[in-house]
From TrEMBL:
It comes from the Bacteria. The keyword ATP-binding applies. Residues 1-32, 524-585 are annotated as: Disordered. This is FtsK domain-containing protein. ATP binds at G309, V310, T311, R312, S313, G314, K315, T316. Residues 8-28 have a biased composition (Basic and acidic residues). Keywords: ATP-binding, Nucleotide-binding. Residues 288-474 form the FtsK domain. GO terms for molecular function: ATP binding; DNA binding.
Length: 604
């Protein structure tokens, strides 16, 4: 067994070079930032500023007309009247009767004051009266627009900052509710007769409960996501609809984000594996809540997992977090297989209990894991069935396989069916013996699992993390539970500020809301906690991982291995029972080591 070692922390320069956005942010000039901020404020407060602009324009037109002698004075007045009529015509298309009426009064008043100022002069008492009248007429407008539009320009213009949800003035109807009632719940709109209640703000937006009309299902609310985005004037990816399990199918939880917390990197802050629950935080959801990865279910055994994503989507970084949590716990004894030939998880070459960097070594590690299952059988029998609970004296043994599709898919030149069979066996039998499989592939599809529906069914019961992919797939995508709000291929490659969306995806076996994986820059910065195997498992020889099938026998086995006759008899019996004369199959069937099976096959 390779002794885990602690590596020195990376040099600061090295860590800096990995941060791709920080230096750019530091170089951003001030002038464009000020211009952006002015544009943002103007856009945000445009509703409040509009009456001043209208009164000012009325004053300007009246003053221009008063300064000219007739008939030239008619020109600015005619232009002003045309503008007033045009603005009214534009607003008339609005669905709100109030807005039509108000626009009619405002446009008529503006035209009237333009003429009055032109005839009576635009200074002194007349202009004062006009401003006072305009301000009085603006009061209903300001009351109606007491709450600014949802501010979506802020985070497009500048790095996002968590913001408190906008407060609603006491006694004022909630604008979010009004928009819902007018544009979503009204007759002929996407969700007629629906109600929005329990609106509560949080740092990045607000949440509410949607209840549909009798006879409707919450999936309809999910389908209305694009309309909801449009009504609240938000960019894509800011509205999420989730089932309220255990409640009426008409009800669902709506999450609306006015800014996007996922745009910033969320760093892993130290080990969080809770031995009582077997889970640790792996991702941060769009509403700021953590999503957990489960290594085991208390009382129900180990859980398998699948992490998928296109190249550079961040799946290796997810495995880094999983492996760091595992290797810092005294109740987890991880084994690592790198399907990328040792290039994907090089940090773990010296730190994992076993590290396989070639297909042949991968086979050896999988056989070893299968033999550990056999070794632990008596422990389960002794405790009267059930499953082994991970503990310092009986650690969980996760077999983590990066680039697993390379080892599971067969083609004309490579036959990997034996690897698929061994993985199936681990997922089907390993859970109650504390042995599980954690796979990383490029697409969460059955095809990438070697077309094994058995593997698919087992990983679906555990954790599936789906990061961004680029192809829709061939129809055999793995899905779980509630419908996904969007296809993984529709996840953006970049955020609006141009930064990459590495680590962005869904925990498909948890809440159906966008999330981003925690980032651990350098796993070697964190010490490995030894988690020695239980004595029965420790008696199993550890493969030498030299590319051959040779195994090192433990001293105990060298002293007391079974006699040749017993080995030969067990192998003969397995063949007589119908097992193929394939060493791997015989090894699994008999529980003997590969060397024993090979030797027996030579003898019989
Ligand atoms: N959660 C994250 N937050 C921010 N950046 C991340 C996150 N995860 C990964 N990255 C960055 O994305 C880049 C690619 O990550 P990673 O190597 O894990 O991708 P991958 O999917 O394993 O790619 P490949 O298939 O090529 O190995 C790295 O530079 C990493 O720093």
């Amino acid at each position: 067994m390779t002794t885990p070692t602690k590596r020195p922390p990376a040099e600061p320069e090295q860590r800096d070079s990995e941060s791709d956005t920080a230096p750019e942010e530091r170089r951003t000039p001030v002038a464009p930032q000020v211009a952006r901020e002015v544009r943002r404020l103007l856009r945000r407060w445009r509703n409040q500023a509009l009456p001043f602009a209208t009164i000012g324009a009325t004053h300007g037109i009246g003053a221009a007309a008063a300064a000219l002698s007739s008939p030239e004075a008619l020109l600015p007045v005619a232009a002003g009247w045309t503008a007033s009529a045009g603005i009214y015509g534009h607003v008339h298309r609005s669905t709100s009767r109030w807005e039509r009426l108000y626009a009619c009064v405002a446009a008529g008043s503006s035209a009237g004051w333009q003429a009055t100022l032109a005839l009576a002069g635009a200074n002194g008492v007349t202009a004062g009266l006009m401003w006072a009248f305009g301000a009085a007429l603006s009061i209903p407008w300001w009351v109606r627009h007491a709450e600014p539009e949802p501010d979506v320009t802020a985070e497009l213009a500048a790095p996002p900052q968590p913001r408190e949800a906008l407060p609603v003035a006491p006694g004022t109807a909630d604008r979010r509710l009004k928009l819902w009632n007018e544009h979503i719940a009204a007759a002929g709109k996407p969700l007629p007769e629906s109600t929005l209640d329990g609106i509560t703000g949080f740092a990045y937006g607000w949440k509410a409960t949607v209840t549909l009309a009798t006879g409707e299902h919450w999936h309809t609310t999910l389908q209305a996501r694009k309309s909801i985005l449009s009504v609240y004037d938000l960019p894509d990816g800011r509205v999420f609809v989730e089932a309220l399990h255990g409640e009426s199918v008409r009800r669902s939880r709506l999450t609306v984000l006015t800014s996007d917390p996922l745009q910033q990197k969320n760093h892993w802050n130290g080990p969080g594996l809770d031995p009582a629950t077997g889970k640790f935080p792996l991702m941060i959801a769009a509403d700021g809540e953590p999503l957990h990865f489960k290594l085991w279910n208390p009382g129900a055994g180990a859980l398998h997992a699948l992490i998928s994503g296109v190249t550079r989507s961040g799946k290796t970084k997810v495995l880094d977090v999983v492996l760091t949590e595992a290797s810092m716990s005294d109740r987890v004894h991880p084994l690592v297989i790198d399907g990328g030939g040792g290039a994907s998880l090089p940090q773990w070459c010296e730190r994992a209990n076993l590290f396989a960097g070639s297909p042949e070594q991968a086979r050896q590690v999988l056989r070893y894991a299968l033999r550990l299952i056999e070794r632990r059988r008596p422990a389960v029998q002794r405790q009267g069935g059930g499953s082994l609970e991970p503990a310092p004296e009986m650690p969980l043994v996760p077999v983590v396989i990066d680039e697993a599709h390379k080892l599971l898919m067969s083609d004309d030149e490579t036959d990997n069916r034996d690897i698929v069979r061994m993985c199936e066996q681990i997922t089907q039998e390993g859970a109650k013996f504390g042995v599980c499989l954690i796979l990383a592939t490029q697409v969460p599809s059955v095809k990438q699992l070697g077309n094994s529906t058995a593997l698919r069914d087992q990983v679906k019961a555990g954790t599936i993390v789906g990061l961004r992919i680029t192809e829709k797939g061939s129809g055999n995508m793995i899905d779980t539970g509630d419908p996904m709000p969007e296809h993984l291929k529709d996840l953006p490659a970049e955020f609006p500020d141009g930064s990459s969306t590495h680590g962005l995806g869904y925990m498909m076996t948890s809440r159906k809301i966008r999330a981003r994986a925690l980032l651990l820059e350098n796993p070697a910065d964190h010490p490995v906690t030894p988690a020695p195997l239980d004595p029965e498992s420790a008696a199993e020889p550890v493969p030498a991982l030299n590319g051959s099938d040779r195994v090192e026998e433990s001293p105990a086995q060298q002293r007391s291995g079974p006699a040749h006759e017993d080995v030969d008899a067990a192998v003969q019996q397995a063949i007589a029972d119908g097992t193929d004369q394939d060493p791997s199959a015989l090894m699994r069937e008999t529980g003997l080591t590969m060397r024993q099976v090979r030797s027996a096959l030579k003898r019989i």
